[in-house]
């Protein structure tokens, strides 16, 4: 098979999400990041697969780029690790040369540049989230083609398909830390429950302005309760 | 000059035995005769002003600008050799564009000053080039507020509240020192800038001149350009532009009057002294 991201045929553009090489390690994934009152929260499942085999059940898909900018990786493990390493190098250099840390927008921009110019060679869906001095917490999504989208929250990876409705129903602007963590945890529980390629544990990173990053770990089946039924408005 | 005949001034990249680089010093000399150029970092923006002597009646008023826009939020005034200034500005524009491409953000003023300082410095290192015959005053504003830097031919640059270069720099500097720049607003600043240009002009009184003045502002009420932006546009909300014509003309009129009144007072004082002597 030709190793390309998109194919144009008579009936439109076909994007093959599963075009990894034979045996390539895949992050069939549920990842998300949200803005909340004091910053951002990143969340991810922990399943890594090679085909049907679970290569790692406790993977860490939340990757630190600078002191206060992190990313969630989905797609090819090798590709996204390489891209994250390159961006980390550039942002370290930026901070040394300019005497202040880069903005989250700058970090997202460098991720995008790499993902867009190498779109034919990469399988990388990355969420960039962090806090900076001037704009506070921000969330950016860079899906397969290398476009860049800022939003209040974003979900990505194969498992995200199952939680669009959940997130749309339960999202609130400016949640506090407890509400924000609950939102991420419950959303990822649902994604893991329905998506076969997502699983393991739920990892979370909380970034607040001027504070050290906090890591959290949850088991998806612990105290599982169905999300409360919402009355139609 | 003491160095003539020693041979240490023939090339860049050659130090004299007492540790000087004569080529750089000559470049600084070239600037000392350039037009008086000042920068004022005010509370709500930055002002650049330049005294332009009218060398010919054939020149169109307001032509041959010495202050250029480098990015929407940055202006640079150069004093010294005009072509060197043009090249310097071109490089600054390239730096600003490349910053936008790489980081999806307007270049911070400190970062641009740093890049341009390094660029100027590189022209003091090699025998195949000569240093820039210009001093550049960089004015702009970013997330940290207004910023003002002056880059010299050696590559040396510092951040300033107020900067002056060119022929009338000494007079201009002593006038700038009297200002309280951390409290001064742009609207007050343009009047001071015009006055300073007139005061500094004192030495070559008979020559006609015009004032070129720009500012970096965020105030949509006084700005010429529309201070608006749409989502996705890379811009921090500050504009570098010419000071609106009416404001500049008013400032120049007041400055001229103030300087003339001061001269009359001086003349009166001298007259009185003489009378005393007569008595």
Number of strands of chain A: 15
Main beta sheet of chain B: 5 strands, antiparallel
State the oligomer: heterodimer
H/E topology pattern of chain A: EEEEEEEEEHHEEEEHHEE
Portion in helices of chain A = 25-40%
Neighbour order of strands in the largest sheet of chain B: 8-1-2-9-10
Give Rg of chain A in angstroms.
17 Å
Beta-strand share of residues of chain B: 15-25%
Helix/strand-derived category of chain A reads alpha+beta
Features:
heterodimer; A: 233 residues; alpha+beta; six-stranded antiparallel sheet; five-stranded antiparallel sheet; 4 helices; 26% helix; B: 279 residues; 6 helices
Explain this structure:
The complex is a heterodimer of chains A (233) and B (279). By secondary structure, chain A is of the alpha+beta class. Chain A has four helices and 15 strands. In chain A, strand 8 and strand 9 form a beta hairpin. The radius of gyration of chain A is 17 Å and the shape is globular. With 279 residues, chain B is of the alpha+beta class. Chain B contains six helices and ten strands, in the order H-E-E-E-E-H-H-E-E-E-E-H-H-E-E-H. In chain B, the strands form two sheets. Chain B has a five-stranded antiparallel β-sheet, with helices on one face. In chain B, helix 4 packs antiparallel against helix 5. The mean pLDDT of chain B is 90. Classes of the chains: A alpha+beta (233), B alpha+beta (279). The A-B interface holds A 94, 97-100, 102-103, 105-106, 108-110, 113, 133-134 and B 102-105, 108, 110-111, 114, 143.
């Amino acid at each position: 098979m030709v190793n390309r991201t998109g194919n144009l045929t008579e009936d439109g553009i076909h994007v093959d999400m599963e075009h990894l090489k034979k045996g390539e390690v895949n992050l069939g994934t549920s990842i998300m990041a949200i803005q909340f009152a004091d910053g951002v929260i990143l969340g991810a499942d922990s399943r890594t697969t090679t085909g049907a085999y679970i290569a790692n059940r406790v993977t860490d898909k939340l990757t630190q780029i600078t002191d206060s900018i992190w990313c969630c990786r989905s797609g090819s493990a090798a590709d996204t690790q390489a891209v994250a390493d390159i961006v980390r190098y550039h942002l370290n250099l930026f901070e040394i040369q300019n005497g202040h840390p880069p903005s989250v927008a700058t970090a997202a921009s460098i991720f995008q540049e790499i993902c867009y110019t190498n779109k034919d060679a990469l399988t990388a869906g990355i969420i960039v989230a962090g806090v900076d001095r001037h704009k506070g917490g921000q969330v950016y999504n860079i899906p397969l083609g290398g476009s860049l989208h800022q939003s209040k929250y974003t979900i990505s990876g194969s498992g995200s398909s199952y939680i669009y409705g959940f997130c749309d129903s339960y999202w609130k602007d400016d949640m506090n830390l407890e509400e924000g963590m609950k939102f991420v945890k419950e959303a990822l529980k649902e994604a893991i429950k329905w998506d076969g390629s997502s699983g393991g544990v739920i990892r979370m990173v909380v970034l607040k302005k001027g504070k050290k990053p906090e890591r959290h770990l949850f088991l998806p089946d612990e105290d599982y309760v169905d999300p409360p039924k919402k009355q139609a408005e | 000059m003491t160095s003539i005949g020693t041979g240490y001034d023939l090339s860049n990249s050659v130090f004299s035995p007492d540790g000087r680089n004569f080529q750089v010093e000559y470049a600084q000399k070239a600037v000392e005769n350039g037009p008086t150029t000042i920068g004022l970092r005010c509370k709500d923006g930055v002002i650049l002003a330049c005294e332009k002597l009218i060398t010919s009646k054939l020149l169109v008023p307001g032509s041959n600008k010495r202050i250029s826009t480098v990015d929407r939020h940055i202006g640079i005034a150069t004093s010294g050799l005009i072509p060197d200034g043009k090249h310097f500005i071109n490089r600054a524009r390239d730096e600003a564009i490349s910053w936008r491409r790489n980081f999806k953000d307007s270049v911070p003023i400190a970062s641009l000053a740093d890049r341009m300082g390094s660029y100027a410095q590189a022209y003091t290192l090699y025998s195949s080039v000569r240093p820039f015959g210009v001093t550049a005053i960089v004015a702009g504003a970013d997330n940290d507020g207004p910023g003002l830097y002056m880059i010299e031919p050696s590559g040396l640059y510092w951040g300033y509240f107020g900067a002056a270069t060119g022929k009338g720099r000494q007079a201009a500097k002593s006038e700038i020192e009297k200002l309280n720049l951390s409290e001064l607003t742009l609207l007050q600043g343009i009047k001071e800038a015009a006055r300073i240009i007139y005061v500094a002009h004192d030495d070559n009184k008979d020559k006609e001149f015009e004032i070129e003045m720009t500012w970096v502002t965020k105030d949509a009420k006084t700005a010429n350009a529309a201070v608006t932006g749409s989502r996705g546009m890379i811009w921090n909300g500050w504009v570098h532009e010419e000071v609106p014509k009416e404001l500049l003309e008013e400032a120049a009129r007041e400055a001229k009057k103030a300087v003339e009144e001061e001269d009359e007072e001086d003349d009166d004082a001298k007259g009185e002294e003489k009378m005393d002597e007569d008595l």
